[in-house]
Design goal:
The protein has 168 residues and is of the alpha/beta class. It has helices at 55-62, 75-83, 96-104, 121-125, 130-167, and strands spanning 2-7, 26-33, 36-44, 67-69, 87-89.
């Protein structure tokens, strides 16, 4: 099985998950056999700056992806992935390695299109002044930094939990 994770970094399993699949800078592709990681590949999203609807699902199909895990994705993209036989999973956050572990343990599962649609940038920004756009860009950078901090904290908490479980 090949699982693709959206990420803000090109650090393999140590990467921080990206919230929006279409504009994420990187993809981490993990090949799994059973529950064992066979291969990890970090690639640049070739369509991060501009793409047509369906381009990324087609790209993932060509890469042999079975599951895509991300923070957010719009309903159209989810439908395209389903049409290609790729399972979209949204609402994930943290480090790729932690989300992978949760997925393999059955803790991360598919959420329906209606449960977590993601707004397009056009819907969020439409017809606003340039100063507003600059503020939105600054906030996006802050959000990426906060996601990294949250993912680091999540990793620490999971390690503490493992140690506590071993003590019991």
């Amino acid at each position: 099985m090949r699982i693709c994770f959206t990420s803000d970094e090109k650090n393999g399993l140590e990467s921080t998950m990206s919230y929006h699949f279409g504009h994420c800078p990187y993809f981490v592709i993990v090949e799994i056999e059973g529950k064992e990681v066979k291969n990890v590949e970090s690639i640049t999203n070739p369509l991060a700056d501009e793409h047509n609807p369906g381009d990324l699902p087609q790209f993932m199909k060509e890469k042999g992806i079975d599951v895509i895990i991300t923070g957010g994705m719009g309903p159209k993209a989810q439908a395209y992935f389903k049409d290609y036989g790729i399972t979209p999973i949204i609402g994930a956050y943290g480090k790729v390695k932690d989300v992978l572990e949760e997925y393999l343990e059955g803790e991360v599962t598919y959420e329906s299109i209606e449960e977590k649609p993601c707004s397009s940038e056009e819907e969020l920004v439409e017809d606003k002044e340039i100063d507003f756009n600059k503020e939105v860009d600054r906030m996006k950078k802050d959000i990426i930094a906060l996601r990294k901090e949250i993912s680091d904290l999540k990793s620490i908490l999971l390690e503490i939990n493992k140690k506590l479980t071993k003590v019991d």
